[in-house]
C-alpha cells in the first residue's frame, strides 16, 4: 500500500460520503444565471458581497521548519492544524495559496497561485501521518459538497486548479473523491475552461506530465475490471471516464497552445484503448457526433495511431465488402456469369511501361477503387497475395517522384518533395497520384514518400470533402514555421526581415510581389491587388510574410494540390480521417520512421529453425551489423516494402524458415507472408555474402 493509501474502512467511509456529491449538469448552472432584472420587485434583494478571504501569513520557510520539527519530534500538531484548515473550503484554499488574499487575479495569464508554496505543501503531504492525509481528503469532500452550487468565481477556479494537483489521487483508494472533483471541473462553463487551460499551460513540464499520466492511469484502471472492494461497480460510475477524459482534454488544449508543446502529442495516447472494441466507440460517434453520448472518438488525442489505423482498416474493409457485394448482386440480378475478379481492383501493368500503364488502369477503373487491390505484372508468374502490390507501389512511387518526371520538385535543404508550380491545362496526373496515395492507406501499404508535414495538414483541410464544389480545399493556414518545413533558407530570410531593426523599406526595397521561375521563365505575381506598387515597411512586413508563405504553400499550387486532394479522398473518404492529426496521416502513409532490427529479432518466428541454431544466430549478427541502407533492403526483400508499418516491426509477423537445399543457394523470400527462407549456412561469412547478394538484387517475381 502506498503512503497515500487509506485503510479499507477509511476508504469506504470516504467513498460513501463522496458518492453523495450531487451531479453537475448544464441545467443547474443555467438556472443560477437568472438576471436580477427579470425578477419581480418583491423578491429583489441585494446580492451578498464576495466573501472576504481570511489572511494567512505562513511562508514556505515557516512550513518547512514546521515539517522538520514534526519529523524530528514526532509532534505533528502544527502541521496537522495547517492541513486541516487549508483544505477545509475553497475560501481557505485561496487564503493559503493565493499570492495576495483579496487581489482579483482574474486574467488568463496569471492564476495568482503561489506555486512554490503549493508544490512544497503537496510534496510534503505524502510524508505526513495517515490521519493528516485522511483529514485533507475529508476537507476536499466537504469543499466539493459545499461549493458545487452557484456561478463560479475566479477563486473557485483557482481552488479547482489547486485541488487537481493533489498527489494523493495516484492511489485508487482516493478515486471516488478524484472522480467527483473531475466531474465538477468537466461541468464548468467554456469560459471557465478557457482560464484553466491557460493556467495549466504555466505548470512546470514535470508536474504537467505527472498530471497527464495520472489521468491516463485513472482512465485505464476504470476501463479494466477491478476487485469489488477496490472500486464501485462500473454501472454506478459510468460517468468517471467521460469526466476524466474531458479534463484531460483541457491539458491537451494547454499543450497544443504551448510553443513548443510541453509534451509530445503521442504522450496523450492511452495504450489501454488499443485493446478494447474501438469500433463500437466509432459507431457511437458516427451516430451521435459530439452530442452528450460519450465516445472516445470525440477526444481523438487519446487514441493511438495504432487504434486509428485499426478504425480506418475496419472502415475500409466494410467499404470493400460493400462494393464487392454490390458488384455481385448486379451480376446475379442480370443473370450474368459471376467472375470472381469483379470482387477486386485488378491492375495489370508492364514493367517497361509501369507509370503509363498504372495511370491508365486507375483512370479506367475509378468505379472499382474501393475494392481490394490486386496487381499483375504482365509476363511474370507471380500471384498477388500482397507482395506484388507492395512491389508495384514501391516502383511506381520511385518513378513518379523522379526529378525528370517534373510533377514534384525535390528540395535539398528540407530533403522533401513539393508540388511543381508549373501551369497546365490538365491536372489529372496529380489526381492519380493522390489516388495512389489513398490506395496505399486504404490497402495498408506504407510508401517511401517524402512530403513535409504541412502537406498532410493540407490534406485534412477539410478532412471531409465539401459538397459544394466552390468551397476551397487544401488551403491550410500557412505560417513561417510551415514554410520552414519546405523552404528553410527562404523562411530564415523572412524571419530576419521580421526582426530587422533598420529601415525596412529602404534597405530591403521590397514590394508585395513575388517572382517564380516556371519552366525556365521568370514570372511575377502580386500578393495583393496593386502589390507591385506597395512597398514593404515595418508596419506591413508581418502581412507581407503571411501573404508570401500563403502564396508559396497554397495559392501557387492550388490546382495541383486540389486535384491531389480529390484523388486521395476519392479512395479514403471516411469519417475516420476526422480523428487524425497531420502527423498521424503521415505515419499511415509512410509508416513509422524508426527501423529497429532488435525489435524485429525479438518478435521473429521460426519454422524449421530455433533461435539458438547457428544459422539464425549468424543471421541476426549480420543483420544487426548491417548499415541502415542494407537493413532497408533486407526489409524490402522479405516484405516487399522497406517501410516500417504503424505499430513498429513487432507487428510484421516476420518469419525465418529453413529450406533443405545446398548452401550454394541464395536466401529466398515470400513477401506475401513476410517470410525469409535460409539454407543451413554454417558460417557468418558465408551467410553475409549470400544474404547481401540476395537483398541487393531483389526486384521482380518469378516461379522456378
Give a nutshell description of this structure.
The chain is of the alpha/beta class and 704 residues long.
Descriptive report:
The structure is a single chain. The protein is α/β, with parallel strands linked by helices. The chain contains 28 helices and ten strands. The chain has helices spanning 8-19, 26-32, 60-73, 77-86, 90-97, 115-125, 130-147, 154-163, 175-186, 190-201, 205-223, 240-256, 278-288, 305-333, 354-364, 387-400, 428-442, 453-459, 480-486, 488-499, 504-508, 541-553, 558-572, 582-590, 597-603, 614-625, 628-639, 684-696, and strands spanning 344-349, 372-377, 408-411, 416-419, 513-518, 521-526, 605-607, 655-658, 668-670, 675-678. The strands form four sheets. It has a four-stranded mixed beta sheet, covered by helices on one side. It has a two-stranded parallel ribbon with strand order 1-2. It has a two-stranded antiparallel sheet with strand order 3-4. β5 (513-518) and β6 form a beta hairpin. α7 packs parallel to α9 (175-186), α17 packs parallel to α23 and α19 (480-486) runs antiparallel to α20. It is globular, with a radius of gyration of 32 Å. The termini are far apart.
Amino acid at each position: 500500500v502506498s503512503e497515500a493509501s487509506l485503510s479499507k474502512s477509511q476508504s469506504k467511509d470516504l467513498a460513501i460520503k463522496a458518492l453523495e456529491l450531487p451531479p453537475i449538469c448544464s441545467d443547474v448552472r443555467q438556472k443560477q444565471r437568472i438576471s436580477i432584472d427579470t425578477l419581480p420587485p418583491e423578491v429583489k434583494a441585494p446580492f451578498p458581497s464576495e466573501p472576504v478571504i481570511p489572511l494567512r501569513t505562513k511562508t514556505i520557510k515557516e512550513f518547512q521548519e514546521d515539517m522538520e520539527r514534526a519529523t524530528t519530534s514526532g509532534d505533528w500538531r502544527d502541521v496537522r492544524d495547517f492541513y486541516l484548515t487549508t483544505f477545509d473550503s475553497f475560501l481557505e484554499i485561496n487564503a493559503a495559496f493565493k499570492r495576495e488574499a483579496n487581489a482579483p487575479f482574474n486574467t488568463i495569464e496569471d492564476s495568482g497561485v503561489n506555486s512554490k508554496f503549493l508544490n512544497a505543501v503537496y510534496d510534503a503531504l505524502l510524508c505526513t501521518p495517515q490521519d493528516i492525509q485522511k483529514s485533507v481528503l475529508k476537507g476536499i469532500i466537504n469543499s466539493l459538497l459545499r461549493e458545487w452550487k452557484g456561478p463560479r468565481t475566479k477563486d473557485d477556479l483557482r481552488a479547482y486548479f489547486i485541488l487537481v494537483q493533489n498527489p494523493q489521487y495516484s492511489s485508487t483508494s482516493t478515486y471516488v473523491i478524484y472522480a467527483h472533483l473531475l466531474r465538477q471541473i468537466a461541468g464548468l462553463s467554456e469560459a471557465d475552461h478557457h482560464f484553466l487551460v491557460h493556467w495549466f499551460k504555466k505548470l512546470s513540464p514535470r508536474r504537467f506530465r505527472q498530471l497527464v499520466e495520472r489521468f491516463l492511469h485513472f482512465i485505464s484502471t476504470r476501463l479494466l475490471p477491478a476487485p469489488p472492494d477496490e472500486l464501485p461497480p462500473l454501472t454506478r460510475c459510468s460517468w468517471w471516464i467521460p469526466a476524466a477524459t474531458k479534463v484531460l482534454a483541457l491539458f491537451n488544449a494547454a499543450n497544443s497552445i504551448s510553443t513548443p508543446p510541453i509534451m509530445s502529442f503521442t504522450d496523450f495516447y492511452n495504450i489501454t484503448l488499443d485493446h478494447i472494441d474501438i469500433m463500437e466507440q466509432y459507431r457511437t460517434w458516427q451516430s451521435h457526433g459530439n452530442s452528450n453520448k460519450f465516445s472516445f472518438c470525440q477526444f481523438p488525442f487519446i487514441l493511438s495511431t495504432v487504434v486509428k489505423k485499426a478504425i480506418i482498416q475496419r472502415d475500409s474493409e466494410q467499404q470493400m465488402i460493400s462494393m464487392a457485394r454490390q458488384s455481385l448482386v448486379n451480376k446475379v440480378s442480370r443473370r450474368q456469369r459471376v467472375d470472381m475478379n469483379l470482387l477486386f481492383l485488378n491492375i495489370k501493368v508492364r514493367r517497361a511501361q509501369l507509370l503509363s500503364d498504372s495511370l491508365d488502369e486507375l483512370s479506367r477503373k475509378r468505379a472499382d477503387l474501393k475494392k481490394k487491390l490486386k496487381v499483375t505484372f504482365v509476363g511474370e508468374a507471380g500471384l498477388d497475395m500482397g507482395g506484388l502490390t507492395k512491389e508495384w507501389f514501391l516502383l511506381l512511387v520511385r518513378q513518379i517522384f523522379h526529378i525528370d518526371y517534373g510533377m514534384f520538385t525535390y528540395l535539398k535543404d528540407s530533403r522533401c518533395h513539393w508540388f511543381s508550380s508549373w501551369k497546365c491545362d490538365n491536372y489529372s496526373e496529380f489526381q492519380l497520384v493522390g489516388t495512389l496515395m489513398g490506395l496505399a492507406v486504404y490497402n495498408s501499404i506504407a510508401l517511401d514518400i517524402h512530403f513535409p508535414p504541412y502537406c498532410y495538414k493540407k490534406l485534412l483541410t477539410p478532412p471531409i470533402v465539401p459538397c459544394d464544389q466552390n468551397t476551397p480545399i487544401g488551403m491550410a493556414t500557412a505560417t513561417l514555421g510551415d514554410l520552414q518545413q519546405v523552404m528553410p533558407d527562404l523562411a530564415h530570410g523572412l524571419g530576419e526581415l521580421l526582426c530587422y531593426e533598420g529601415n525596412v523599406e529602404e534597405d530591403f526595397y521590397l514590394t508585395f510581389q513575388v517572382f517564380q521561375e516556371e519552366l525556365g521563365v521568370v514570372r511575377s505575381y502580386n500578393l495583393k491587388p496593386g502589390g507591385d506598387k506597395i512597398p514593404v515597411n515595418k508596419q506591413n512586413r508581418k502581412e507581407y510574410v503571411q501573404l508570401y508563405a500563403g502564396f508559396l504553400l497554397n495559392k501557387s499550387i492550388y490546382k495541383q494540390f486540389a486535384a491531389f486532394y480529390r484523388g486521395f479522398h476519392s479512395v479514403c473518404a471516411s469519417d475516420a480521417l476526422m480523428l487524425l492529426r497531420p502527423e498521424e496521416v503521415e505515419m499511415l502513409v509512410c509508416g513509422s520512421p524508426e527501423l529497429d532490427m532488435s525489435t524485429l529479432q525479438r518478435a521473429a518466428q521460426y519454422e524449421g529453425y530455433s533461435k539458438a541454431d547457428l544459422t539464425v544466430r549468424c543471421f541476426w549478427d549480420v543483420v544487426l551489423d548491417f548499415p541502415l541502407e542494407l537493413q532497408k533492403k533486407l526489409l524490402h526483400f522479405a516484405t516487399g516494402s522497406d517501410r516500417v508499418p504503424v505499430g513498429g516491426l513487432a507487428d510484421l509477423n516476420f518469419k525465418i524458415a529453413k529450406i533443405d537445399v545446398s548452401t550454394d543457394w541464395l536466401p529466398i523470400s515470400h513477401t506475401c507472408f513476410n517470410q525469409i527462407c535460409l539454407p543451413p549456412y554454417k558460417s557468418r561469412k558465408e551467410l553475409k555474402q549470400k544474404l547481401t547478394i540476395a537483398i541487393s538484387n531483389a526486384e521482380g517475381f518469378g516461379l522456378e
